[in-house]
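Dear colleague,

Thank you for sharing your sequence with our group. We've completed the structure prediction you requested, and as agreed, I am returning the results in plain text so they can be pasted directly into your records. Please verify that the sequence below matches your submission; if there's any discrepancy, let me know and we will rerun it promptly.
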Amino acid sequence: MDREDGSKSDGWRSVYGNEPAEDKISKEEQTTDTYDAVKGDDSGEGETAAATEPKAWTSVTKVHSALSGEWDSNASGLANGTDRSPSEAPNDRASAAVPARRRKPRVLLWSFLIAFGLVLTIMGGTLLYIWNGLRPPASSDTPVRVTIDKGMRASKVAKLLEQNGLVRNAVLFGGWMKLKDQGTRFQAGVYELTPGMTRDQIVTKLNQGKIVAAATIRFTIPEGFTVQQIADRLAKTVNVNKMAFLQAASDPSKWTGSVWTSHIPKDANLRIPLEGYLFPETYELRNGSTEADIMNRMLAELDKKLDQLPEDWQTTLQERGMSVHQLLTIASLVEREVVIDEERPIVASVIENRLKKRMPLQIDATIQYLLDKPKQKLSTEDLKVQSPYNTYLNAGLPPGPIATPSFKSIEAALFPADTKYLYYVTKKDGTKSHLFAVTYNQHQKNIQLSEKNVKK
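Please find the predicted structure tokens below.
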């Protein structure tokens, strides 16, 4: 560069050595050295040059600002005695910029690891929550009783089990049952479960209906009992309200146990409409059963027994021109007249033969039914009592049954023996058997024979 004073120099000397600066430094570094030279010139000529070249000055200032850190570093190196060449400065700047460019991948990696850790934590916490909620509660030796009502939904069963400390979490237990397709076969009843039972054990017990045997009432109704006698028996044995039972037996709206009660004729002459329909049997019902519950259980037993007859029993009944009400009426007469099973079809044949001939049945049991208390022997006056049930005064069947017939008597009434007998008399030898006759004269002889055989 030519100076204004016209003298020439061999070039600016580098502070690092005697080698010419233009051989070592870049264009930007030349500008920087020029800036330093101008600023360090005490003659003031530098100011003149700066004033005449404002653009160059601005450029120099920017370069100075950008590289001031390098010059400071170089200065430190010089102060410490380190010999660094200007050519090393760009390499230092390049090496300093590398870590800044690699910082972004590390941030992404850390973000991924943190997010992945959060996901694992949430998943682990969820699995721990489910595991803890489904595991059995603490075991106990004290059983818990729960009542499953008919039609109860599985979700309500789960809540009931949680309330009684049998499961930890009703929602999780309900979800598990839904996943396993359980809860639709639970049977109603009272169950005794123990805390600490597994889910499978609880579900199995509810599916199998292993309920606790409830407190029950037990009673026996003998064959041939009337509704009045049944009410007396129940009042004494199971503390049933006698009047409430008799009222229920006269109220058709409460007869729900049998399909045949709807065929009972609406006859004002019937003393008790339900007479003969309460089947004699030994019963066991839950404690607290009402009078209507007991009555309908006995009605249901009648239907059960009728179903045990031959399949064509209703066809046979129609062929004979009889209704179920008439069948039970004849069966009740047989029941009160006969003790020995083999004689039941024979007595039924006598009733059928008399009905065909339109003869009065003249059965003492119908008179006994009208009396408040049965008698050992009926008087002549007893045979004259005015009632549709008096088979001495009225031909045909009484308005309805006079007692509860047994299954054997029902069979005999449906399938009577094929005889021509019109009369029978009880032997008085203690065998409780009968003598049968076709004619009245033969019947009189049988009466005399019976009197001779009176057991003394």
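Summary note from our side: Confidence is low (pLDDT under 50) at residues 1-90.

Kind regards,
the structure core
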